[in-house]
Specification:
binds nicotinamide-adenine-dinucleotide; about 45% helix; globular; seven-stranded parallel β-sheet; three-stranded mixed β-sheet; binds thymidine-5'-diphosphate; 12 helices
């Protein structure tokens, strides 16, 4: 039986990964270490309550005693590190926590993994691996043409992407210096169930269904490359199983859209499924994000060629699945948007 230490498994992508892995593998054990920040939510894991293959531990990836204790108790042979502060706008307001969690937290996990796995002669058992879940934002911004490959120079702009880039460099440092077996995945923007409604797609679904203004930054022509979250989970699983030691794999499905096109799509679906009076008049152009990257676009050729990965869910299908999920899970959305969420929303959007 394989045991994986999954960090941040109560967040958006981490919880989707846990559900994906438990569906796919009968003989597996997932130790889920999550601090349960504003973005972590045990409701995401309600459908697997009581499943003995999933062990939830509330705690911080920065806690050395806790993390080394988890290695001793459960002896995982893999770490998949999702835990992070993940929202660019928050990183612009409060960069320090991004450095702590994303950089120092990753360093602590790397140190604990090395301490647990390195043998007396400095080698590692064949089955161990540290997989860092990273982002295409480490490459910076594209102009009108071209794509990010694994060779594109790292050139982050936001405090969030700077912290993720630093973490990637530390992961490679542990590989190059101590020989730790590692992989890094760099995925484009994800969407799907359980995404916190501070991110573009769920925020627009939430606001449109409540007939609130839809805040579009700048001119709405920034481009993101959207991937359905389950396709990202599949890629992580494939890289963990068969990725070549020390390699980076970009993950994306060639699905670039302007932000305004995404917002109009959400409006059209909400109009059709919920309320015919929801129209594009809700769109409100607001002050642009500081340092707003113009365009992201992934070249996924390496993961396709080496591992045979390709996405299963086209955007038209994925966006409909996502809207249906939010419509059918009103309680989930209500619970995460009550309380502290409104204070966040007012702070970020009131004077824009
Ligand atoms: P998220 O914000 O939804 O979830 C992050 C999770 O990490 C939460 O459950 C939170 O409680 C937990 N966490 C935060 N600090 C922690 C700490 N100190 N110790 C333990 N747990 C902690 O983020 P997400 O969108 O699911 O992203 C997951 C990972 O994937 C991140 O590393 C992110 O950089 C990366 N990523 C995200 C996207 C995307 O589109 N969302 C794309 C590419 C890569
Ligand atoms: P976001 O979901 O925050 O992801 P990221 O910044 O990591 O790409 O934002 C996606 C795009 O949508 C980005 O170009 C900023 C834009 N955006 C808006 O126009 N309005 C909003 O309210 C939000 C949250 C994002």
């Amino acid at each position: 039986m394989k045991t994986i230490l999954v960090t941040g498994g109560a967040g958006f992508i981490g919880s989707n990964y846990i559900l994906y892995m438990l569906k796919k593998y009968a003989d597996i054990r997932l130790i889920n270490l999550d601090k349960l920040t504003y973005a972590g939510n045990l409701e995401n894991l309600r459908s697997i309550e009581g499943d003995e293959r999933h062990i939830f531990v509330q705690g911080d990836i920065l806690d050395k005693t806790l993390v080394s204790g988890l290695f001793k108790t459960y002896q995982p042979t893999a770490v998949v590190n999702f835990a992070a502060e993940s929202h660019v706008d928050r990183s612009i307001e409060n960069p320090g926590i991004f450095a702590e969690t994303n950089i120092m937290g990753t360093i602590n996990l790397l140190s604990c993994a090395r301490a647990a796995w390195e043998t007396a002669d400095g080698s590692y058992p064949a089955e161990v691996k540290f997989l860092q879940v990273s982002t295409d934002e480490v490459y910076g911004s594209l102009g009108e043409t071209g794509f990010f490959t694994e060779e594109t120079p790292l050139c982050p702009h936001s405090p969030y992407s700077a912290s993720k880039t630093s973490a990637d460099l530390f992961v490679m440092a542990w590989h190059d210096t101590y020989g730790l077996p590692v992989n890094i995945t760099r995925c484009s923007n994800n969407y799907g169930p359980y995404q916190f409604p501070e991110k573009l797609i769920p925020l627009m679904i939430h606001n449109a269904t409540n007939k609130k203004n839809l805040p579009v930054y700048g001119n709405g022509l920034n481009v993101r490359d959207w991937l359905y979250v389950e396709d990202h989970c599949k890629a992580i699983d494939m890289v963990l199983e068969n990725g070549r030691n020390g390699e980076v794999y970009n993950v994306g499905g060639h699905n670039e859209r302007t932000n305004i096109a995404i917002v109009k799509k959400v409006i059209a679906l909400v109009q059709q499924k919920v309320d015919p009076t929801v129209t594009e008049s809700l769109i409100t152009y607001v002050t642009d994000r500081k340092g707003h990257d113009l365009r992201y676009g992934i070249d996924p050729e390496k993961i396709r060629r080496e591992l045979g990965w390709q996405p299963d869910t086209p955007f038209e299908e994925g966006i409909e699945l996502t809207i249906d999920w939010y419509l059918n899970n009103g309680d989930w959305l209500h619970n995460v948007t009550s309380g502290g969420y409104m204070a966040y929303y007012d702070k970020m959007y009131k004077n824009r």
